[in-house]
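pls design
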């Protein structure tokens, strides 16, 4: 399985991750999930309401409801979540693993102070396995 991420959406998610620094940025991804790929077609920037936004994220539940209603209205599927790790790696934290939903992709951006290199990884929980997915930016 592969993540298909349009370049314009990728750029916006990077800018959002940098803009929210030193807090974790977060948002919801819409699109289509197939047998061979997850095609990301839309993004929804959300507010991080976590008690410690420096080290964790929590999508605002009211925003989440509005986004899911909107996606349902326009015929889009919820395919994933993205968030950033300020001054951290692009790997899943223990909390990220605990909170993962099955069959939903997770994009994690690594954003470091004074470092222009942004790293990105994608994950998917399939049953109890966590898969590291390739990302194709086009």
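designed seq:
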């Amino acid at each position: 399985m592969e993540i298909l991420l349009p370049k314009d959406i990728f750029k916006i998610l990077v800018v959002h991750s940098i803009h929210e620094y030193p807090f974790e940025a977060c948002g919801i991804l819409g699109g289509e999930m197939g047998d061979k790929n997850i095609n990301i077609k839309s993004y929804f920037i959300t507010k991080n309401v976590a008690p410690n936004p420096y080290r964790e994220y929590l999508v605002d539940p009211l925003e989440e409801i509005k986004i899911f209603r909107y996606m349902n209205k326009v015929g889009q599927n919820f395919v994933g979540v993205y968030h950033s790790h300020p001054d951290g790696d692009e790997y899943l934290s223990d909390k990220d693993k605990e909170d993962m939903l099955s069959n939903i992709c997770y994009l994690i951006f690594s954003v470091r102070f004074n470092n222009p290199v942004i790293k990105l990884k994608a994950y998917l929980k399939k049953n109890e396995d966590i898969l590291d997915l390739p990302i194709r930016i086009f």
